[in-house]
């Protein structure tokens, strides 16, 4: 029998060794789970009675993960992302954004970042975003002689925003493992996610204004609207979309009124934007939008603005279906993912782009991606169960708590471990292996000592730590030597762009990610603003 301290060192070194020789994380974790039990317990105990003893704990842990209903949302979100990537929805969205920002310095890089935010809010899948942006935006930026490092960094850093912006699969897995409300995690991550996206946009704007040679302006189209005229057309587009949206809300509220579903009842949450008291406000918004369209801006100008911006409509509908159904209390996470798939599929049919080949290819890609995630989940769940049975989490917790480090020193040490592990290991393995050890430690820390500005309610500590972890994983997607975003982009980048060039382009954006991480650590209440 090996003591738990020696066992912890053996497992850690063996994990790095197995990953270094190329063994997949799922198989490495499962192998080390059995090794952990063999070293900690007598081999005879493991096999003496079938279905009982330490080995049965592994089976129970894997079964518990595999039968979690929320896990079904993962392949659904992956399938939705695959359909989006193969259809023309993302391409049209890029073209519409580019129309409005084409004459802005660094406009294509800004469009790329905004497009990444919208795509993150649609599917929460990181790899597909980077590949799609690499196919659509990178050739454009290189053709216009954008700085190569700026183009690469913008695509990969922005394409990784799916980690932070709901519906993030990283947050879903964190919620599954730690039994934290996924809806609360989504709500808490909104502001930090958009804060990081804003950091990227500010960096692009400031950098290109200071050095215009980094982002030359494209040739001017003499027929394109300019200045105030373009602004009025954009306002017309927004007004027309608002008119359609408020019209839908009005019909919805009237339907609930006729059926009696929006009657105020004790103990029943009111229908969001569907109560009788909401109808006057909805009518007022509809009237203002109609006034803008038909009187102030004019039908002709509004029609031109709609043609220029209609590529944004489909993505907004998908986001509304997925996130709206969650936050309006219509469905849970899994059902929202299914509704998102249906929305993308129907939009594709209406656009006459949804062919059998696209659906089949998307299904095959979903099967491969889900298979990888499931095997990693099985292996990591087994190793986490075996290590817990051996007393590892208690040993690590006592070692950290008794280290005489201040509260923030303990948290910063965890952040350093996350950063190092993120360089070599997939985020799924980190969630399943490290989080059951670290989260109980964080919960035991004095809540008044967490952060440097403001205080956080002890109830929200698991949510805050989950958001902080996701921000940390943002860094891991760009961190050498195994930053996955680099390999995603390399698969579609021109041959003259090497992996070294790609990692070099990441450096300023990694600094911005670390800055955002420090904001979350220094000011924890930022995650509770919308809770």
Automatic annotation (TrEMBL):
<feature type="transmembrane region" description="Helical">
    <location>
        <begin position="234"/>
        <end position="259"/>
    </location>
</feature>
<dbReference type="GO" id="GO:0005886">
    <property type="term" value="C:plasma membrane"/>
</dbReference>
<dbReference type="GO" id="GO:0022857">
    <property type="term" value="F:transmembrane transporter activity"/>
</dbReference>
<protein>
    <submittedName>
        <fullName>TRAP transporter large permease subunit</fullName>
    </submittedName>
</protein>
<feature type="transmembrane region" description="Helical">
    <location>
        <begin position="410"/>
        <end position="439"/>
    </location>
</feature>
<comment type="function">
    <text>Part of the tripartite ATP-independent periplasmic (TRAP) transport system.</text>
</comment>
<feature type="transmembrane region" description="Helical">
    <location>
        <begin position="69"/>
        <end position="89"/>
    </location>
</feature>
<feature type="transmembrane region" description="Helical">
    <location>
        <begin position="6"/>
        <end position="39"/>
    </location>
</feature>
<keyword id="KW-1133">Transmembrane helix</keyword>
<feature type="transmembrane region" description="Helical">
    <location>
        <begin position="372"/>
        <end position="390"/>
    </location>
</feature>
<feature type="transmembrane region" description="Helical">
    <location>
        <begin position="336"/>
        <end position="351"/>
    </location>
</feature>
<dbReference type="Pfam" id="PF06808">
    <property type="entry name" value="DctM"/>
</dbReference>
<keyword id="KW-1003">Cell membrane</keyword>
<keyword id="KW-0812">Transmembrane</keyword>
<feature type="transmembrane region" description="Helical">
    <location>
        <begin position="109"/>
        <end position="138"/>
    </location>
</feature>
<keyword id="KW-0813">Transport</keyword>
<feature type="transmembrane region" description="Helical">
    <location>
        <begin position="279"/>
        <end position="299"/>
    </location>
</feature>
<keyword id="KW-0472">Membrane</keyword>
<dbReference type="InterPro" id="IPR004681">
    <property type="entry name" value="TRAP_DctM"/>
</dbReference>
<feature type="transmembrane region" description="Helical">
    <location>
        <begin position="460"/>
        <end position="482"/>
    </location>
</feature>
<feature type="transmembrane region" description="Helical">
    <location>
        <begin position="311"/>
        <end position="330"/>
    </location>
</feature>
<feature type="domain" description="TRAP C4-dicarboxylate transport system permease DctM subunit">
    <location>
        <begin position="13"/>
        <end position="524"/>
    </location>
</feature>
<feature type="transmembrane region" description="Helical">
    <location>
        <begin position="150"/>
        <end position="176"/>
    </location>
</feature>
<feature type="transmembrane region" description="Helical">
    <location>
        <begin position="502"/>
        <end position="523"/>
    </location>
</feature>
<keyword id="KW-0997">Cell inner membrane</keyword>
<feature type="transmembrane region" description="Helical">
    <location>
        <begin position="182"/>
        <end position="206"/>
    </location>
</feature>
<dbReference type="InterPro" id="IPR010656">
    <property type="entry name" value="DctM"/>
</dbReference>
């Amino acid at each position: 029998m090996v003591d738990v301290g020696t066992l912890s060192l053996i497992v850690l070194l063996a994990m790095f060794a197995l990953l270094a020789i190329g063994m997949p994380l799922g198989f490495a974790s499962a192998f080390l789970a059995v090794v952990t039990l063999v070293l900690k317990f007598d081999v005879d105990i493991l096999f003496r009675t079938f279905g009982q003893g330490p080995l049965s704990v592994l089976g129970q842990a894997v079964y518990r993960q595999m039968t979690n209903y929320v896990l079904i949302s993962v392949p659904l979100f992956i399938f939705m992302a695959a359909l989006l990537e193969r259809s023309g929805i993302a391409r049209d969205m890029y073209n519409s954004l580019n129309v409005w920002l084409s004459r802005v310095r660094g406009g294509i890089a800004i469009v790329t970042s905004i497009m990444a935010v919208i795509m993150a809010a649609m599917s929460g899948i990181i790899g597909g975003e980077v590949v799609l942006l690499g196919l659509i935006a990178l050739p454009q930026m290189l053709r216009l002689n954008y700085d190569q490092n700026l183009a690469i960094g913008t695509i990969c850093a922005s394409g990784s925003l799916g980690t932070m912006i709901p519906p993030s699969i990283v947050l879903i897995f964190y919620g599954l493992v730690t039994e934290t409300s996924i809806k609360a995690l989504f709500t808490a991550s909104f502001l930090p996610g958009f804060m990081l996206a804003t950091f990227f946009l500010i960096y692009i704007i400031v950098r290109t204004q200071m050095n215009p040679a980094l982002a030359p302006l494209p040739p001017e189209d003499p027929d394109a609207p300019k200045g105030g005229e373009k602004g009025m057309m954009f306002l017309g587009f927004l007004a027309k979309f608002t008119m359609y949206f408020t019209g839908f809300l009005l019909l919805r509220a009237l339907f609930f009124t006729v059926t009696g579903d929006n009657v105020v009842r004790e103990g029943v949450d009111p229908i969001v934007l569907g109560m009788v008291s909401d109808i006057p406000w909805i009518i007022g918004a509809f009237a203002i939008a109609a006034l803008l369209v038909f009187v102030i801006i004019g039908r002709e100008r509004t029609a031109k603005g709609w043609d220029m911006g209609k590529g944004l409509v489909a993505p907004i509908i998908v986001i509304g279906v997925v996130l709206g159904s969650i936050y309006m209390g219509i469905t849970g996470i899994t059902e929202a993912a299914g509704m998102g798939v249906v929305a993308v599929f129907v939009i594709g049919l209406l656009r006459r782009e949804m062919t059998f080949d696209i659906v089949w290819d998307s299904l095959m890609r979903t099967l491969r991606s889900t298979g990888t995630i499931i095997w990693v989940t099985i292996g990591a769940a087994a190793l986490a169960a075996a290590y817990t049975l051996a007393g590892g989490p208690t040993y690590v917790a006592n070692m950290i708590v008794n280290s005489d480090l201040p509260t923030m020193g303990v948290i910063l040490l965890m952040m350093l471990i996350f950063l190092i592990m993120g360089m070599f290991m997939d985020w799924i393995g980190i969630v399943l292996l490290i989080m059951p050890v670290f989260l109980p430690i964080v919960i035991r820390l004095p809540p008044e000592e967490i952060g440097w500005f403001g205080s956080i309610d002890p109830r929200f500590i698991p949510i805050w730590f989950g958001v902080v972890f996701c921000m940390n994983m943002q860094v891991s997607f760009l961190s050498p030597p195994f930053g996955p975003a680099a390999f995603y982009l390399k698969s579609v980048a021109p041959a003259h762009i090497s992996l070294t060039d790609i990692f070099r382009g990441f450096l300023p954006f990694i600094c911005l990610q670390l800055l955002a991480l420090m904001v979350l650590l220094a000011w924890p209440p930022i995650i509770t603003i919308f809770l």
